[in-house]
Q: What sequence folds into this?
């Protein structure tokens, strides 16, 4: 059996005393694409932050390759990365943004990887690499942020509503880039989205969340019946 | 009004002919203000960063103190530095009174609150998503600290420009702890004050033009940095 990349064991997350997430067991397999669906406030973003090791759970354990990890900056954050719905771009050029993570890892010349990452999200490196952060539209900024994460070739890429501010063409490009990351680098993807058609098209399987709990598809269908 | 026109013409002549006394005052100003800026930035940026970035007991009191020091009168700074550096004061043995380093010490006290307060405000105003973004891109704690300073760079540069504007135009500190000694500690502002008192307008106007040019440059830089800082 393949060892899980990220696992949650009896995890509960609480904000201001209110339980927002309750997951007994969840395994993300290497190279898998897992979709997260559910209404606003169902716990999708909280789950992504836990999977990205940006928060520690109120109780329970989150492991990376079987080893518990914390939310303090550490080696696990060089293997798992998160793209939020409204990403923050650093106050530098597009090249500087995409190259930042690579330089943080000691990459001396990230030019080629930056080029490939920009091309993967449909941005022409010749036109975009020198643009400043304030010269981009919302959709372009979203794709630059995705390129910055794809360039890292992470073991796990977590995305929160990656197509929310994109047109149909750009959404298709993001899907292609996500699938390419899995094929080329074995990246596991966990994607939260309200766009069910897009989510089903890109994911191996989709987990449904309601009130902070994972409700599997079968149960939902049974409920509908 | 002829004396003013004549003063302007003579002022231009002094600057263009490289008059040694005029350029001695310019040099003294550049030397003292450069020393003061280096000290203010070296101390002020890390202190301002800590004040803006960290939470600690008494932070509000420290912040209020720093904000109060923004309007520290230059003559009071001059008085305090004089008291410490005079032969009866605790640092009298250092022999610094009536030297350019003495002026630089006073000007550092003048510029430091500006750098600390504006750096702290700049760090506090940074987007709350920045630390999370840096962690998700794999930055370690040291890289996060440095990237935070880099993100606030335009506001920190604005702080430096504002502090320089205050330092270069002060007269109280330079007069009290510098002593306005010709060829040694006579700065642009003390020279203007002295020459005007003597009814000699030419050098005052020449040095005034230098000071106005500095002020104009500082303002142009500040307005450009302000635009970049809010983007």
A:
């Amino acid at each position: 059996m393949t060892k899980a990349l990220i696992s949650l064991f009896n995890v509960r997350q609480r904000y201001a005393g209110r339980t927002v997430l309750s997951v007994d067991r969840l395994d993300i397999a290497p190279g898998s694409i897992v979709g997260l669906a559910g209404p606003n406030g169902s716990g999708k973003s909280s789950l992504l932050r836990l999977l990205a090791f940006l928060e520690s759970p109120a109780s329970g354990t989150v492991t990376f390759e079987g080893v518990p990890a914390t939310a303090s900056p550490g080696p696990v954050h060089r293997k798992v990365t998160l793209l939020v719905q409204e990403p923050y771009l650093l106050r530098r050029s597009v090249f500087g943004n995409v190259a930042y993570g690579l330089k943080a890892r000691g990459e001396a010349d990230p030019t080629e990887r930056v080029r490939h990452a920009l091309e993967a999200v449909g941005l022409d490196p010749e036109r975009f690499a020198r643009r400043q952060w304030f010269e981009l539209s919302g959709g372009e900024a979203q794709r630059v942020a995705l390129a910055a994460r794809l360039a890292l070739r992470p073991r796990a890429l977590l995305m929160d509503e990656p197509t929310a501010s994109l047109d149909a063409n750009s959404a298709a490009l993001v899907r292609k880039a996500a699938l390419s990351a899995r094929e080329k680098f074995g990246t596991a993807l966990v994607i939260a989205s309200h766009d069910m058609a897009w989510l089903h098209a890109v994911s191996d399987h989709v987990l449904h969340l309601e009130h902070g709990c994972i409700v599997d598809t079968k149960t939902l269908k049974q409920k509908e019946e | 009004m002829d004396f003013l026109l004549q003063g302007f013409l003579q002022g231009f002549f002094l600057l263009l002919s490289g008059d040694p006394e005029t350029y001695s005052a310019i040099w003294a100003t550049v030397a003292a203000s450069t020393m003061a800026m280096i000290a203010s930035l070296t101390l002020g940026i890390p202190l301002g960063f800590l004040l803006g970035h960290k939470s600690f007991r008494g932070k509000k009191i420290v912040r209020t103190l720093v904000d109060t020091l923004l309007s520290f009168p230059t003559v009071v700074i001059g008085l305090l530095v004089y008291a410490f550096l005079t032969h009866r004061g605790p640092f009298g043995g250092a022999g610094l009174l009536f030297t350019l380093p003495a002026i630089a010490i006073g000007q550092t006290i003048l510029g430091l609150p500006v750098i600390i307060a504006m750096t702290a405000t700049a760090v506090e105003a940074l987007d709350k998503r920045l630390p999370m973004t840096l962690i998700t891109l794999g930055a370690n704690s040291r890289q996060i600290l440095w990237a935070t300073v880099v993100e606030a760079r335009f506001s920190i540069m604005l702080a430096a420009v504002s502090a320089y504007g205050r330092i270069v135009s002060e007269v109280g500190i330079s007069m009290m702890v510098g002593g306005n000694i010709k060829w040694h500690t006579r700065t642009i502002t003390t020279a203007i004050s002295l020459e005007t008192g003597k009814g000699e307008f030419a050098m005052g106007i020449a040095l005034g033009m230098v000071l106005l040019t500095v002020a104009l440059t500082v303002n142009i830089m500040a307005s450009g940095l302000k635009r970049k800082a809010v983007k």
Observations:
- The first strand of chain A starts at residue 6 and ends at 15.
